[in-house]
Design a protein that fits this description.
Elements lengths: L2 E6 L7 H8 L5 E4 L8 E5 L2 E5 L12 E4 L4 E2 L1 H13 L9 E4 L3 E2 L2 H14 L11 H9 L12 H22 L7 H15 L3 E2 L1 H10 L4 E4 L25 H4 L10 E7 L2 E3 L12 H9 L12 E3 L1 E2 H11 L3 E5 L9 E10 L2 E3 L6 H5 L2 E8 L16 H14 L3 E5 L7 E3 L9
Parallel strand pairs: 1-10, 1-11, 2-5, 2-10, 5-7, 6-8, 7-9, 11-15, 14-16, 15-19
Antiparallel strand pairs: 3-4, 12-13, 16-17, 16-18, 19-20
The protein binds guanosine-5'-diphosphate, 6-O-phosphoryl inosine monophosphate and magnesium ion (MG).
């Protein structure tokens, strides 16, 4: 029995979707445990691109079960749209291969409206959220007024909860945010209808995972966002509203920590960030543009241009500690081909002193200057390389230095967006190549 967690170590978009799709071959169940449709996980299989926002990235594999855990906030309209889109591509979506936890919280139209109106009101100080209602939905969960998937299957409960919420939300929207009020009837009718369609999918995900584990099945847990977007451990307040760290695989799926056997952290070979917030190694120059263009760094959810910079090992070392990583996967290594020199930030300099961990204070962080190590780059196109031995010496040197600084092994190297553009050094499920 091996259960593996795949988690982002930076600010999201590390290539988690690709790695999860690739590792699904070795798993029986794939479980998302937090976040919502702020996530955009890209899979490229047989030349065709699929972007998963809510449905686990294992969905393209026949015969594997994909579960949406209680830790997510689910926009039912988006979920149904994603199911339809997959069907239009010939992927069968039925309760046989997809379940939604009855305890997952539901994103309502007022969550989206509040998210957008707040961002607008903040003007230049906005967080750059995805505008999908993620934060306001998690707020309601914690405030104990949220609507859960199971409530969509009980008309009375749904009606009552929408009424109570709308009274407060409409007051807030109109009186504080200068926005439009929302109408009860249309929300109730549409959520009741979506609840009817989703009913066969709404299950006890925690119980199913327990049964699967008892039968010796292998589970792959898929994180969304990244460690430095974590609401506790990230660059607060420039974070998302959930805990992407690996520990959430337990609370967000309904299992105990004893069930997690291997935590794999996804490390993009450089750093990117969408939305606002601090970014010590950001490159506002032609090297940044080069990486942005070669890496096609545009958001998979909002289409926004991603900010780019050098690999920041201070972030990665924090992630190793915060997630208890056993190994790392390096993605998008092919993007760096053609650079004469490649830099790795190994520490920060703060007010004349060296620091090896990201300070919590944004004021202190803004004074941090990256301390770089410079390595030689390589010219060769490595996107068709399939083994360690075929990699250019300079590429190996870059990887070995990352491994050395990490103190944990690199298990997977990704050299392109396609499933097969992967070098497995040590499979997190089997331990073998
Ligand atoms: P996620 O949110 O962590 O799943 O990552 P995204 O899907 O948002 O962003 C990663 C992007 O890089 C997607 O467009 C992927 O298709 C692409 N990608 C993933 N791995 C590689 C790689 O090794 N090389 C290149 N060139 N692209 C990759
Ligand atoms: P995946 O799973 C990158 C960012 C947003 C914004 C901040 C808060 O694809 O890696 P939110 O809508 O969550 O309240 O926005 O978090 N963000 C992401 N950035 N990848 C993601 O997901 C993200 N999900 C949220 O851009 O800065
Ligand atoms: Mg993404």
């Amino acid at each position: 029995m091996t259960n593996v967690v795949v988690v982002g170590t930076q600010w999201g978009d590390e290539g988690k979707g690709k790695v999860v799709d690739m590792l699904t071959e070795y798993a029986d169940l794939v479980v998302r445990y937090q976040g919502g449709n702020n996530a955009g996980h890209t899979l490229v299989v047989n030349g065709e691109q699929t972007i998963c926002h809510l449905i686990p990235s294992g969905i393209l594999h026949k015969g594997k079960r994909c579960l949406i855990g209680n830790g997510l906030v689910v926009d039912p309209e988006v979920l149904l749209g994603e199911m339809e889109e997959l069907r239009s591509k010939g992927v069968e979506i039925t309760p046989e291969n997809l379940s939604l936890s009855e305890k997952a919280h539901i994103i309502m139209p007022y969550h989206r409206a509040i998210d957008l109106a707040r961002e607008e009101a903040k003007g230049k100080k906005k967080l750059g959220t995805t505008g999908r209602g993620i934060g306001p939905c998690y707020e309601d969960k914690v405030a104990r007024v949220g609507i859960r998937a199971i409530d969509m299957t009980e008309p009375d409960t749904l009606s009552e909860k929408i009424k109570v919420n709308l009274e407060e939300k409409n007051f807030y929207l109109t009186e504080f945010l200068n926005s439009e009020p929302l109408d009860y009837d249309s929300i109730y009718e549409s959520y009741l209808r979506m609840g009817e369609i989703l009913k066969p999918y709404i299950r006890d995900v925690s119980l199913e995972i327990e049964k699967a584990i008892l039968k010796g099945k292998r589970i792959l847990f898929e994180g969304a966002q990244g460690t430095h977007l974590d609401v506790d451990h990230g660059t607060y307040p420039y974070v998302t509203s959930s805990n992407p760290v690996a520990g959430t695989a337990c609370s967000g799926a309904g299992i105990g920590p004893d069930k997690l056997n291997h935590i794999n952290g996804i490390v993009k070979a450089y750093t990117t960030r969408v939305g606002a917030g601090p970014f010590p190694t950001e490159l506002n120059d032609e090297t940044g543009d080069y990486i942005q263009e070669r890496g096609a760094e545009f958001g998979a959810t909002t289409g926004r241009r991603r900010r780019c910079g050098w690999l920041d090992m201070v972030l990665i070392k924090d992630s190793i500690r915060l997630n208890g990583l056993n190994s790392i996967s390096i993605t998008k290594l092919d993007v760096l081909s053609g650079l004469k020199k490649i830099k790795i930030c190994v520490e920060y300099e703060l007010d004349g002193e060296r620091v090896g961990s990201r300070p919590a204070s944004l004021k202190r962080l803004s004074r941090c200057k990256p301390v770089y190590e410079e390595l030689p780059g390589w010219d060769q196109d490595i996107s068709s390389v399939r083994s360690w031995d075929e990699l250019p010496d300079e590429t190996k040197r870059y990887l070995l230095r990352i491994q050395e600084l990490s103190g944990i092994p690199i298990s997977i190297v990704s050299v392109g967006p396609m499933r097969e553009q992967t070098i497995i050094l040590s499979n997190p499920f089997t331990g073998g190549p």
